[in-house]
Write a structure and sequence with these properties.
Blueprint: H1 10-13, H2 22-28, H3 56-71, H4 78-97, H5 104-137, E1 141-142, E2 182-186, E3 189-196, H6 204-210, E4 221-232, E5 237-238, H7 240-243, E6 244-249, E7 255-256, E8 277-278, E9 282-292, E10 300-305, E11 311-314
Antiparallel strand pairs: 1-2, 2-3, 3-4, 4-9, 5-8, 6-7, 6-10, 10-11
Helix pairs in contact: 3-4, 3-5, 4-5
Length: 316
Amino acid sequence: MMIMSNTLPPNESDPALQPGSDQHTTAEQPAPVVPPAYGADPALPTAPTSLAHKNGFGLAAVIIGAVALLFAFIPAVNVFAVILALVGVILGVIGLTRKTKPTTKALIGTILSGVAAILAVIMIVVYAAVFVRAIDESMPSVETSETAVPNPEDASTEAPAEEPAAEDVGTRKNPAAIGTTVTMTQAGADTWEVTPGAPNLNAVDLVAAANQFNDPAPAGYQWAVLPLHVAYVGSDSATPFVDIRVSFVGADGKTYEEYNELASGYVDGQLSSLNEMYSGASGDGNVLILVPSANIEQGVWAISPLFGDPYFFKAQ
């Protein structure tokens, strides 16, 4: 008699391992792959990326404010610094109104530009005051050795006609005599002592002999030469040609200087040939100017510092 066993082989007892079983198919099949949409680049992510918020107006305000702050301390340039700072303030305010953007840089740029504008205005006023003061202090003063000696015999006679005061000597209406020494000042300190010598109001032959390339004087004009003796009395050093200006004011009221558009000339020993001088040094130089021939004796020589009013001398 055979006894039947209910035990099945391991492969047959598990329904999931039987061929055709749904469980076996589900366990071994991979997940379905969804192809990309038509026209999409599979290399690019389909999810949107987040961009960092930036405030371009705020950054521009910071840069412009920094540049304006630097320019505020430079003379003449600080005028443009005011305009630049105002632009920075406007950009900073615009950056502050952009609520969706960070406002930190916009606030810094607005404050920086505002400070730069205020400093630029202050420095403009300061530099202008210093410049005006320097011009006022550089006005030349005259020293003369002529002293009026009272005469007792004139006490009982009629008083003479009123003469110009001593401080009026050296004006165009009352020019000083040739040979008078004038002391020039700069920033309140003495710099040069200048003494004009006897001028040559008709130096045509002198100019022609000095250089063959000199231009002849045009019709109605003539070359005039004024010799100068200069002595530097300042504490540092200076150059005569830079610090001392010489011109001729004709009877027509016009000013004539060394360089003109009508003719060019050169003579030996010009003032421009003197180099830098230190305290106690002196030298002699000539100034050549093309002047009008009409009523030349009624003209005057004008000698002035680089910054300051001229001191006038007689034509001869």
